[in-house]
Amino acid sequence: MSAQSIYGAICESLNSEGKLPNDFSLPFNKTSPNQLRFIPGAKDGIGIFHFGVKSSEEVSKKIVKLLKNDWKKGSISSQNEIAELLRECSTLSVIDPILDSIRQDRKGIDIDNLFDFACRLAFQSSDEELVKLGIGLLGLLDLSNKQDIIDKLLVLALYEEFTLYVIVAFSNYQNGNDLLFKIAQKVDGWGKIHAVERLEPTSDEIREWILRKGCANAVMNAYLGLECANKGNLIGALHQDTIDNELFEGISVIIDALLDEGPVEGISAYEHAEEALQHYLQIASEHIETITQFWRILNLQSWLISAQIANRDELLKICDDIINREVWRKMVLEILNNPDDKQFFYASHVASRLNMDVSELIFKAIKQNPVEHCVYISIVYKNPEYANELTKIYEEILPLDDMATGMGDFLFAESLAHEHNCLDFVLQELKNYPKMGEKLVQTALKSPVTRERNGACNVMEEWCKILNQNLQTVSPDLFSLLKEIADIEVNPDTKNIMKKLLNIN
Description:
The protein is an all-alpha fold. The chain has three domains: 9-197, no CATH class; 204-325; 398-501. It contains 30 helices and no strands. It has helices at residues 6-13, 42-51, 57-73, 79-89, 95-104, 111-124, 128-138, 147-157, 163-170, 176-184, 190-198, 204-214, 225-231, 234-238, 245-259, 273-287, 291-305, 312-323, 327-336, 344-353, 359-368, 377-380, 384-397, 400-403, 417-430, 438-445, 450-467, 471-474, 476-488, 492-501.
């Protein structure tokens, strides 16, 4: 067991608002560069929403047997074995069968031992899966007289890998919905999605919060659009005589989320869809003021073009009236002249939708912060002059030697993650410019990240096609380096690509 528990690490990281910072990560929870990286709660959340959860009965029976043996003895001797079993199949796949088994057969279980064991797992462990199990076990017990334990669970819920488990545990408590509301207001990702999905609008306060703040989250607003429309009484809010700016923003988020039916049901399942859109656009005509809100109107316009609803043409006309206001073009230019503006992303996309040529402003923004703004380079690399100048900048400012650390078969870089991400973006654009940025291509060939070596090969392949020449003629230096690299390439697919470029059968 680590010297520091997960619970302790969370407690130490809480800010003045009693929340975890957005960039919080467990200090001892390091991911291998060859592992997919999930934000807290993502792995379980994706499993629940998109793949379903398959229970592992065999593993759950093994764990229950180990648990009961320990509880009889009042020991923790099986903890490591249980942890290993949980890592093999995930807590999510076994937690329900484990808890059901214990509920059905409490014979011989010492409740005090169960409680002590669960608390040890939940609050003293440095293993995420053990913490989840501990939280689940505490959900079996009556904690009405143990406010200190409830408070500790509320702290664990702030780390969104555990939010779902605390929510489910609280569902068995008399004041569970109130506790759930507390959690929902302090999380922002998968935890918020699970919380709002299970939150009941039992008071005006909860209903109002759902409308104003419930839908927006750091993962994807679409997961909560329909939930918030129904639980927050969206149609009722749209009929109000007065709507303040915060409420309008909340309604706008919900409407936009309803239109995106990729992850879950949305507008097609909303009973008041046509009426809601009618009232929303009428309200938007008077209230819309930010570029982000305008972006949502553009999204609605795109959706309406192919929509099969009775009032489509009327709604499109209202959209057009809003979109044709000159203020939006002025706002786009003002924002793009300030690369630090939080709405820069939306402004750049609005400019594209309005067919505005803002490449010069984007170019200046990228020059000001080449790594942070590399996501916009596709806009400006269409201009050969901009492409040439930016490529030289990237060759100068990127720590190429430190990035070219040698062969590996990694999904992600162990260090300089932002710089490697930037290199990925640049490589995609260099394909169109033969012989430009050879230093960057060389760096990518010597990167431990397989994706970047593949990207370098794609660049060279395109250059050969454009010039109708083999690689040795296009770039003797790259040919020589590739010949050297191909001999030690560890990824079989990448090795085949390299051999093809070298004309080696």
